């Protein structure tokens, strides 16, 4: 996949699309400089003709503005070589999309509306953006809903959730990642079958719910009812043509194994399966070693594929085995629990436990694809189903006020024994996209990814001192999130109202808010023993507002202790 191996030169045009605040103009500037190409900013081109886009919209209305914009795009699309930054709405026009696709490698810069709103407010020209109006965040959410189906037609999805460092021009971080993808995949992308037809239709693109992009590899995450039935098709798309080595646990295999075997058989794919006992005890070096023995007996080769069918335990175990056997085999995840779909299967972390602690031996190994079949959740034990929602609620709290509202509105339905598959798909896809956005924007774990540990500092401590028996992970995280929210409130970051809102939502999902009867001191001590503690200070993720979390190890011990006491005293 190197540029040298590519039979055709990379396209001579790069096009940037995305909402206001995503950094199109500044990224385009950096790209044009690096490549020595012409820079075309369609908003600037419009302004050169006498009026800014804002003025045009006010004076002549949006349709007239769109017409002018389309003619500018038509002109720009003929320029070679060039980097083109488009106005946020330009890509909504089917004709313009097709034009831009003729020569251009199209990149979608993506971040959440709250993050975009923050950047727009910070930038000095924030007042200039005409389409956004008073309630910036709400308007951006609206535009995101409207335009994402079009943006999804882009050749490259480029997550830009990480705020740029103070000493770095916006675009400096994004441009090299775009250049790399452009050199490696640009020519292939433009040669895709039916690409221009696809760009020219108004039908939404059929894209995965999210992509994990580490800079080295991109992993599509498919979410929906019936995804298991598409396994053979997806394997073929990924050119994974070898034998499938399916790893599962007893309960999941009983409920869903036959379906997977049937799909493989029908497609003529050779396969073998290994079933481990359910439960955390299977995440061990002993079981991993059994699996190595099985794979070698089966003469597994590096071109074969390890497939995990199950919850986080099976995913972590199979992922670890796939990462290490033959120094790494292709891996595909079929998560079947809410927790695995929303958390464990996303991000490429795989590990087994040691007697000394959880997840102590592991590797980073991105799956080639994740297929989350919502239908499998129908057989989940209810408590484990609810537990998984703690991570979904966490994603909403730290990143996405709209998802939070959606969860509040539909808590009853989602916690019922037979939730609507479309609703489950919508919620899962959205939460998965948030985790993917964070992981992909921060593959080096420079900070943003750490915010996913909201509720986990205290949560891990509670799990540890109760020997992982009393509370399921999500339950402990729920209690931990109450602690973290309380600390955030005491530090003046959020109001009492937000703490109460979080509590109400967790309660609505049947999740605990307290760990009555534990010793506060034991929780405090366990926090200091956590492997993630740096220099003797536990690190907390605090809530700054709904949709925004920050990392801090600067808490007063008094405040932490008080919060912990509040969690353990009845
Ligand atoms: N790798 C990561 O980034 C990451 C993140 C979070 C958690 N984890 C790990 O995930 C594990 C927990 O995951 P989990 O909660 O999914 O646990 P799990 O895999 O043990 O699943 C919970 C229980 O539900 C059963 N089950 C799962 N799906 C089912 C289905 N569709 N139908 C019937 N039964 C089903 C399982 O057999 C098991 O008994 C932990 O080991 C944790 O360390 C990993
Ligand atoms: Zn977790």
Major β-sheet profile: 7 strands, mixed
Q: Within the CATH hierarchy, at the fold level, what is the topology of the largest domain?
A: Rossmann fold
Low-confidence stretches: none
What gap, in angstroms, lies between the N and C termini?
59 Å
Strand content: 15-25%
Structural class: alpha/beta
Compute the number of helices. Answer: 22
Radius of gyration of CA atoms, rounded to a whole number: 24 Å
Question: Can you list the strand order of the major beta sheet?
Answer: 6-7-14-11-10-8-9
Structural write-up:
- This protein is α/β, with parallel strands linked by helices and 570 residues long.
- It folds into 3 domains: 195 residues, Rossmann fold (3-Layer(aba) Sandwich); 163 residues, Rossmann fold; 131 residues, Dehydroquinate synthase-like, alpha domain (Up-down Bundle).
- The chain contains 22 helices and 16 strands.
- A hairpin with a 2-residue loop joins strand 15 and strand 16.
- It is globular.
- The protein starts with 12 loop residues before the first strand and ends with a helix.
- The chain binds nicotinamide-adenine-dinucleotide and zinc ion (ZN).
- The site of zinc ion has 5 residues, from helix 19.
- The site of nicotinamide-adenine-dinucleotide has 31 residues, from helix 11, helix 13, helix 14 and strand 13.
Describe the protein's topology:
Blueprint: E1 13-17, H1 24-35, E2 38-41, H2 42-48, H3 53-60, H4 62-76, E3 82-85, H5 94-103, E4 104-110, H6 113-122, H7 136-151, E5 156-159, H8 174-190, H9 195-200, E6 210-213, E7 218-224, H10 231-237, E8 244-249, H11 250-266, E9 271-276, H12 285-297, E10 305-310, H13 312-324, E11 331-335, H14 338-344, E12 349-354, E13 357-364, E14 369-373, H15 382-399, H16 401-414, H17 421-441, H18 456-465, H19 473-490, H20 496-508, H21 520-529, E15 540-545, E16 548-552, H22 557-568
Helix pairs in contact: 1-8, 2-4, 3-4, 4-5, 6-7, 12-13, 14-15, 14-17, 15-16, 15-17, 15-19, 16-17, 18-19, 18-21, 19-20, 19-22, 21-22
The protein binds nicotinamide-adenine-dinucleotide and zinc ion (ZN).
Nicotinamide-adenine-dinucleotide binds next to helix 11, helix 13, helix 14 and strand 13.
């Amino acid at each position: 996949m190197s540029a040298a191996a590519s039979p055709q030169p990379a396209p001579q045009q790069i096009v940037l699309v995305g909402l206001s605040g995503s950094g199109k103009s500044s990224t385009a500037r950096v790209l044009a400089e690096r490549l020595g190409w012409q820079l075309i900013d369609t908003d600037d081109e419009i302004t050169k003709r006498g009026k800014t886009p804002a003025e045009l919209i006010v004076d002549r209305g949006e349709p007239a503005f769109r017409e002018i914009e389309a003619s500018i795009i038509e002109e720009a699309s003929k320029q070679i070589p060039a980097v083109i930054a488009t106005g946020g709405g330009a890509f909504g026009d089917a004709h313009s999309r097709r034009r831009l696709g003729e020569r251009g490698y199209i990149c979608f810069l993506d971040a959440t509306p709250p993050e975009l709103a923050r950047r727009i407010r910070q930038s000095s020209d924030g007042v200039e953006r005409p389409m956004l109006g008073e309630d910036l965040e709400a308007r951006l959410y609206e535009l995101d809903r409207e335009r994402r189906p079009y943006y999804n037609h882009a050749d490259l999805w480029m997550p830009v959730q990480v705020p740029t460092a103070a000493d770095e021009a916006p675009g400096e971080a994004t441009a090299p990642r775009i250049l790399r993808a452009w050199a490696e995949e640009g020519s292939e992308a433009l040669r895709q079958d039916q690409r221009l037809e696809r760009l020219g239709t108004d039908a939404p693109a059929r894209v995965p719910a999210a992509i994990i992009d580490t800079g080295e590899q991109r992993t599509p995450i498919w979410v929906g009812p019936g995804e298991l039935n598409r396994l053979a098709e997806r394997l073929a798309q990924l050119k994974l043509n070898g034998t499938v080595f399916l790893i599962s646990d007893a309960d999941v295999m009983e409920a869903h194994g036959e379906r997977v075997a049937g799909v493989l058989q029908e497609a003529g794919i050779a396969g073998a399966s290994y079933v481990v006992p359910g439960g955390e005890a299977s995440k061990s070096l002993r079981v991993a070693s059994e699996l190595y023995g099985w794979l070698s007996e089966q003469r597994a080769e590096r071109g074969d594929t390890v497939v995990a069918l199950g919850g986080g335990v099976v995913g972590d175990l199979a992922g670890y085995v796939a990462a290490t056997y033959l120094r790494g085999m292709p891996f595909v995840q079929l998560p079947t629990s809410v927790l695995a779909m929303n958390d464990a299967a996303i991000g490429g972390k795989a590990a087994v436990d040691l007697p000394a602690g959880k997840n102590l031996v592991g590797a980073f190994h991105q799956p080639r694809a994740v297929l989350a079949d919502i239908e499998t959740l129908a057989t989940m034990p209810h408590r484990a189903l609810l537990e998984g929602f703690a991570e979904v609620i966490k994603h909403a709290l730290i990143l996405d006020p709209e998802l939070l509202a959606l969860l509040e509105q539909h808590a009853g339905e989602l916690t019922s024994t037979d939730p609507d598959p479309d609703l489950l798909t919508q919620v899962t896809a959205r939460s998965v996209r948030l985790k993917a956005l964070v992981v992909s924007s921060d593959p080096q774990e420079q900070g943003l990814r750490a915010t996913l540990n909201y509720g986990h500092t205290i949560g891990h401590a509670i799990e540890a001192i109760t020997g992982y028996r009393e509370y399921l992970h999500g339950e402990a995280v729920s209690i931990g999130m109450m602690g973290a929210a309380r600390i955030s409130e005491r530090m003046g970051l959020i109001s009492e109202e937000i703490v109460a809102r979080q509590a109400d939502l967790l309660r609505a999902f049947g999740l605990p808010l307290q760990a009555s009867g534990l010793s506060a001191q034991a929780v405090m001590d366990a926090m200091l023993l956590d492997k993630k503690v740096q220099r003797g200070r536990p690190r907390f993720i605090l809530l700054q507002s709904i949709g925004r979390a920050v990392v801090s190890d600067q808490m007063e011990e008094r405040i932490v202790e008080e919060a912990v006491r509040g969690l353990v005293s009845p």
